[in-house]
Amino acid sequence: MPSGTRFSVSLINLDRSPDRLARAASLLDGAGITWSRLPAADGNHLEPDEKNAIDGTAFARKMGRAWRPGEAGCTFSHIRALRGFLASGDTHTLILEDDFTIPEGPSLASRIEAVLGAADQWDFLKAYTFRKYAFVPRHDLGDAGRIVRPLNRITKSLGHFVNRKGAEAILAAFTKFDEPLDWFLDQPWRFNVKYRALRPNLIEEAPQLASTIGYAARDVANFPFYRRGGALAHRFGMAARRTFNNLTAA
Fold first, then answer.
1. Is 124 helix (H, G, I), strand (E, B) or coil?
2. Which of 6, 113, 178, 211 is deepest in the core (most CB within 10 A)?
3. pTM to 2 decimal places
């Protein structure tokens, strides 16, 4: 780890999910990782400033459906994590959701060490990507994989590394909840930082775990097609911006 690096790991976990906490804690402890629990935001019981930041009208226009409490909870959990990180003296952090698992291969600790050893290569680094994607290789980490620049949508927010510059840029860009967190994060032109991904994934999703954040708490069916023009325009607009960014970003 480079001199002067202060690294932390935050695990997002709902108070009502002790079994998920125990499972994730066992994985991290077994891998020799020091971590701290971050109580997740409950989308049905948000703080007043978080409720005021929800723009349901804009969300419906962008996504073609109503927002889910679980999506709001996920978003504000990560916003809290970034704010807590900046309030600390840490220089880099890894933010994890509690439904991850550790794949076979080089140890988690050694891969994290390699990522931190190449900290000049990234400001925000996805530890997990859900979609297959094209990429530009940026830095070889040997057995730990490689750091790449994604060229298309990667989605999901299971885990990511971020430094202080990246956290500050993301928080400055976040003014309201009007789309899911992974959609928001997957717009690197809004942050103007080194936005990277790690291949292969540092962590994987544990699909056997049922969601505990309330995705089924409200009707989230897509609107009829004639009410989804704004969502299609938003989707195509993001694709165009992403293409331009991919062609011009460092």
1. strand
2. 178
3. 0.92
